[in-house]
Prior knowledge:
Elements: H1 29-50, H2 58-71, E1 77-78, E2 81-82, H3 89-101, H4 107-136, H5 139-151, H6 153-159, H7 165-184, H8 191-208, H9 213-216, H10 218-225, H11 232-255, H12 259-274, H13 290-296, H14 298-318, H15 324-345, H16 354-375, H17 380-403, H18 408-419, E3 426-427, H19 431-436, E4 443-444, H20 449-454, E5 459-463, H21 464-468, H22 476-485, E6 487-494, E7 498-504, H23 507-515, H24 523-528
Parallel strand pairs: 3-4, 3-5
Antiparallel strand pairs: 1-2, 5-7, 6-7
Amino acid sequence: MTAPVAFAESADMPPPPRHFVPEGPRLTLGTLVGFVAVVVAAFGVRAIGLVRGFELWLDEMLYARLGQSISMGQLPNLPDGPFLLHPPGYFLVEGAAISLFGISGNSMDLVLQLRWLNAVIGAVSVGLAFLLVRKVSTTVAAWVLAGVLMIEPFVLRNNSRVFLETLGMAALLAGLLIIVALMVHPQARYRPAKLLAAGLLLGYAVLTKDVYVLGAVAPVVAATVWRHTLRVRDALWILPATAVPYTAYLGVLALNGLLGAWIWAKTKGVRRMAGIEQTTGFNEAGAPSLVDRLLDQLGQFGSSYVLLAIGPVTGVILSFSRVAGRRLIGLTAVMFGLFGFYSVAFGTLEEQYGYPVLFAGAVSAAVCAVELVERRARLRTPVILFTVAFVALALAVGLRTLVTIDNGFVQVRSWMQENLPADARVSVSNSTGEVAFEDDPRIGVWPSAPLMQENGANYIITQELPTSLGYGYARPEMLEWLKDNGEPLFAVDGPTNGSTVLWEVDDATLARGAADNVGFPSATYESER
């Protein structure tokens, strides 16, 4: 067993807790086997629900297109021009995967294949979290955290879709792991090279999504002044390296004359994220109530809400730990927690924003459990009881997520391919359907009775939940009219969209609806057409 080493830079800092004995500086065979086992198991769990769960999202198809553009040697772009709202870190990996594996097809096909890429990255993230917690606490805590992250429903939701946050978190965890390992073993060989590598990984996290600056840069800066957590000279190796990936990206934009467009896109994005411009999210005017949404999804994301609530609190506790690596983990959770609080109170609160808050909070909570027991032995039983109850909750809601069928768009496409005539005319009712079926000449955007009649469409695809909440091209009254006057040819239920239904409306009924101007126009349709 390796003897304890000093964790604080200055002599006036207290020694680490006597219960904590760190691993050696080298990766042991047992730890490596544990990492591989965690990654394989986490990928296996994700593979279960990947085929039939997790309904298609518009953002996924746009991100898949951006990766496809990179695979063709272009800068990330969509039909309306260069895409500069998000940096290209994830799209670069997508492009490499598309080229390497020969991925092709329409937007829906690309998404369904690229989801496997995120499942792999998500599984690696769970493995990296296992290593990070093992480095600064106990093997038991690391295994408990890995088990939770394997099946936690909000983590599964992100890892199973073509979202940017999964890769960003993987890069962030890898960078933090290197830094924490060097804190635990300050005499490790090749220290400057390792610090540079950590900085590059943290920088790549920011290159996937700008918000990761809160976990990649802010905690490193704070750690230099907070309780001697990080040596200033170490930060001077890390921070310049962190800037390298994004600086290279900006250089490419400058060479292509796009810096002005990037500044415009970022300014608009920052205003939106800060809540100055509310065009999406739960704080948008007319958006559904956040409290109602949370209550509706309590049975689906109960464990996620617990982690979102306790994560920043455990971060504050860890920031006062005697172990420097724990303090850095705590500062990371605090930074993301502050971002989460701001988003709820003032900013553009979108569901994807919760992923880094939750993941960093989960890592912090696992280490904090060990910290609390070390500080106060009498807390051992309450901590164990809470952990057992929480793991049971995560297992229950996670298993429910895995067995839930939620792929309405895929099922509707299959049914139409097998049953609808080649000359059928079908309307979609939201932007997700528009992009998903863009290569099908039978399908268009005619989400009202007058538009359906004008374009000879006797069929329409609706998604009950978003339409009833006022999202999409169709008005809620159009859905009610279809229930009374249309014939549902095919229907499938799922937690994301409620009932996805393909309706048929005969000519006479459609003519009466057009005469009554049913469903026309919707504000979303008018603004986007």
